[in-house]
Backbone:
């Protein structure tokens, strides 16, 4: 049976989003103006994990033995003078990094373990389909993830007793509204917030203040410590509040970007060496614990290696989290 020809005009071709005028998240007028001009960022893409990463070399499938043996538990007495050491790979754009923050700070303050925060670029930037020049993130392949995380992060905040509001403006400029549309990530040249936040975090790491930086800045973004859309206005004061000089740091970043880019680049190399790609990732003896919901297992592993409590808490001091693990390391 013959059918009428389809004479409808073809749908319009996809247009490049107007990255400077998105309504996916609210930003107060002038919020971008407080972000200083930054030198260009080198490519941040991390698509090829090393073949000798910790997970691949330690996984035992049951019929293939692990390539390397599991680390022998620490048998030394853990003291303030000889603490355990852990790395935390942290993103200033990750709601789950923020939701793990207070537990990690409480751990550092009240136990004989140095919790070393290492700020990296978020996965949306590291897995952009066009290598950091814009386009769909690999997260777009998981159609459920972005909007579920917005819902779940708020629910987790309520469960953990942590003030939470999803970031506005989003530190990653992306086109995600309305739900069901393509999830496109702006090129690095149109990413004023995350390049600023990462380099500031790396500056804090060089000064031995990365934990303090995350504790001062991340609650502005996700903890509703700033009015809706206004967290960028408060970053400079937050940096100054931890004993850094914001103006001097920005001037040095502008003059010596390679010094700071080397920090996040090494952090990303060490992050991939764990065999993980998401944040927050807590790493102890190379073993990764991915996600704020793995904190209790992480704490359990530290207990297995002799973790002890400090006699006197050290700064910064935070309240004991609502759902702190029991002495055995479980819920």
Residues:
């Amino acid at each position: 049976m013959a059918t009428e020809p389809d004479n409808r005009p073809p749908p319009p071709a996809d247009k490049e989003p107007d990255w400077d005028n998105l309504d996916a998240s609210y930003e107060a007028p002038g919020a971008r103006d407080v972000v200083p001009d930054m030198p260009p960022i080198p490519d941040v893409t991390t698509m090829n994990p090393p073949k000798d990463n910790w997970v691949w070399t330690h996984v035992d499938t049951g019929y293939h033995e692990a390539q390397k043996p599991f680390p022998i538990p620490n048998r030394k007495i853990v003291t303030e003078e000889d603490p355990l050491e852990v790395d935390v790979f942290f993103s200033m754009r990750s709601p789950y990094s923020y939701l793990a923050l207070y537990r990690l700070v409480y751990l550092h303050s009240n136990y004989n373990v140095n919790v070393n925060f290492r700020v990296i670029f978020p996965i949306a930037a590291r897995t952009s389909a066009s290598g950091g020049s814009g386009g769909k993130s690999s997260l777009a392949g998981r159609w459920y993830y972005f909007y579920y995380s917005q819902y779940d992060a708020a629910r987790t905040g309520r469960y953990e007793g942590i003030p939470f509001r999803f970031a506005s403006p989003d530190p990653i400029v992306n086109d995600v509204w309305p739900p069901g549309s393509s999830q496109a990530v702006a090129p690095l040249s149109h990413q004023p917030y995350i390049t600023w936040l990462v380099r500031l975090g790396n500056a804090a790491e060089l000064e031995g203040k990365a934990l303090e930086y995350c504790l001062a800045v991340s609650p502005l973004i996700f903890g509703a410590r700033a009015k809706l859309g206004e967290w960028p206005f408060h970053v400079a004061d937050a940096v100054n509040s931890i004993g850094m000089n914001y103006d001097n740091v920005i001037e040095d970043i502008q003059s010596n970007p390679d010094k700071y880019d080397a920090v996040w680049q090494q952090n990303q190399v060490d992050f991939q060496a764990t065999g993980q790609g998401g944040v927050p990732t807590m790493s102890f003896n190379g073993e990764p614990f991915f996600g704020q919901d793995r904190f209790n297992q992480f704490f359990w592993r530290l207990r297995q290696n002799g973790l002890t409590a400090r006699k006197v808490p050290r700064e910064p001091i935070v309240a004991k989290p609502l759902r702190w693990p029991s002495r055995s390391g479980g819920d």
